[in-house]
Every structure is written in C-alpha cells, then in structure tokens.
C-alpha cells in the first residue's frame, strides 16, 4: 500500500483501491516467476517445467480479466477524479504490461520444448548464454518497476527506464555474437533464428518494465511521459515539481 491508497477518507473506497493495488503485486509476482522458470527450463533442458510455464500463463490471463472488471466497476461506482483516476488508469496500464510479460515468458518456454522435445538436435549451449543473462536482467527490472509503483519511488522508476538502454545494447551485442556463431557453423542457422526470437521476447520484457516505470511518473506527477526518452522524462519531473 502506498500513500495514495492509504489516504482516502472513504474507507470502502480505500479498500477497493488497495485491493486493486494488491492485485498488481500478485500479477507481478506471477509474471516474474514465469520469466524465471522459462529461463530455468532452457538452462536445465526441462521440458516439463516449460509446459508448466505455458499452462500457468492462463492464471495471469484470468487475473488480467479480473483487474479489468474491477477497474470498470470502480469507475462506474465511484466516478474517480484527480489522483484516484490517475491511480486507476495507471493500474490498468500496468496490468496490461504485466500480462504481456507473461506472454513473452510463454514464448521463451516454447523454445525449450522446440529445442529439447523432438527429433531436432539441441543447440550448442553457448548459443543460449545471452538469453539466460537477459532473462535474469529484465526480470529484476520488472520487479523494480512494480516496487517503484508500490512505494511511489520516482528514483527507482527512473533507474528502470535508464536500464532499458542497457537491454537494447545487450540485445545488439548478442546479435553480433550470434552472427559469429553462424559464420563458424552454418548448420546452426535454424537454432540461431529461434534464439533471436527468444532474445527479442526478453527485450520486450524490458520495454514493458520501462512502460510500468513511466506509469509511476504519471501516477506521481500527473505527467504523461509515454514515448519520451530518459532526459525528457527527467525534465517533465522537474517541471512538475516547480
């Protein structure tokens, strides 16, 4: 609970906002678990775990629907304005990003099944090194972005936005290394294409974490900083504080 959900004078309204807030935390925990286990399934060549990740994505989808229903009901019942409306709209956007993170984890898990549950020879483990590192990195970003929401922590939100540049750089570096592998062994092209799709999925997880952090800026400062780079976001925060 943050100072926004904690400060409403109507107790029942405050409880409803807090329930929505806790729903975000629950979906984040599930989404991070999905990314972590999808990467673990690749590292351990664990097809059963990958299948579990794919099935568990339904739980995130169901919570996404539940959150939408609660948001619509809350808007219709309370007709929120000002910061209450900003919080509800922020929650709607954050839940949508978390649901898409679950989808990206499912894509990663499908790679495990493709690589290790068939007649195709598995890839060289070196091809997967960058994938596992990126999955770990972006998962921390997701956790931090929702912690920034939970604590209304602008500094942490800005740090997550900054780290997305590192994700983009890591993605480009991984592509260069894969190109080298491909030149050394043309037979690995099929696996490399699959690994690139996995890397792209993890890059998108980082982008979703950045989107969540931008929602925190909107929630705290009332400034819409979608599609703006880090320097522009900082400028908007300073302008809103003056």
Protein model, in words:
This protein has 242 residues and is an all-alpha fold. The chain has one domain (11-239): Phosphate transport system protein phou homolog 2, domain 2 (Methane Monooxygenase Hydroxylase, Chain G, domain 1, Up-down Bundle), CATH 1.20.58.220. Helix content is 83%, strand content 0%. It has seven helices and no strands. α3 (82-116) packs antiparallel against α6, α4 packs antiparallel against α5 and α5 packs antiparallel against α6. The mean pLDDT is 92. This is Phosphate-specific transport system accessory protein PhoU.
Please write the string of helix (H) and strand (E) elements. Answer: HHHHHHH
The number of distinct structural domains comes to: 1
Through-space gap between termini:
27 Å
Low-confidence segments, given as residue ranges, are none
Broad structural category = mainly alpha
Protein topology:
Layout lengths: L10 H34 L2 H32 L3 H35 L12 H23 L2 H31 L4 H33 L8 H12 L1
């Amino acid at each position: 609970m943050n100072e926004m959900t904690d400060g409403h004078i109507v107790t029942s309204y405050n409880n409803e906002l807090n329930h929505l807030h806790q729903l975000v935390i629950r979906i984040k925990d599930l989404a991070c678990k999905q990314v972590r286990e999808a990467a673990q399934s690749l590292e351990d060549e664990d097809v059963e775990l990958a299948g579990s990740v794919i099935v568990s994505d339904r739980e995130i989808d169901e919570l996404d629907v539940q959150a939408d229903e609660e948001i619509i009901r809350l808007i219709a019942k309370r007709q929120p304005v000002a910061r209450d409306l900003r919080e509800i709209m922020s929650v709607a956007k954050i839940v949508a990003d978390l649901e898409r993170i679950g989808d990206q984890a499912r894509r990663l898990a499908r790679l495990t099944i493709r690589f290790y549950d068939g007649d195709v020879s598995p890839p060289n483990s070196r091809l997967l090194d960058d994938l596992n590192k990126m999955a770990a990195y972006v998962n921390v970003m997701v956790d931090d972005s929702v912690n920034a929401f939970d604590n209304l922590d602008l500094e942490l939100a800005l740090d997550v936005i900054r780290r997305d540049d590192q994700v983009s750089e890591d993605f480009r570096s991984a592509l260069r290394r894969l190109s080298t592998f491909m030149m050394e062994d043309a037979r690995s092209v099929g696996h490399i294409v699959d690994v690139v799709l996995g890397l792209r999925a993890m890059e998108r997880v980082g982008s979703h974490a950045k989107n969540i952090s931008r929602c925190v800026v909107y929630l705290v400062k009332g400034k819409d900083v979608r599609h703006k780079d880090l320097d522009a976001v900082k400028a908007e925060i300073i302008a809103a504080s003056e």
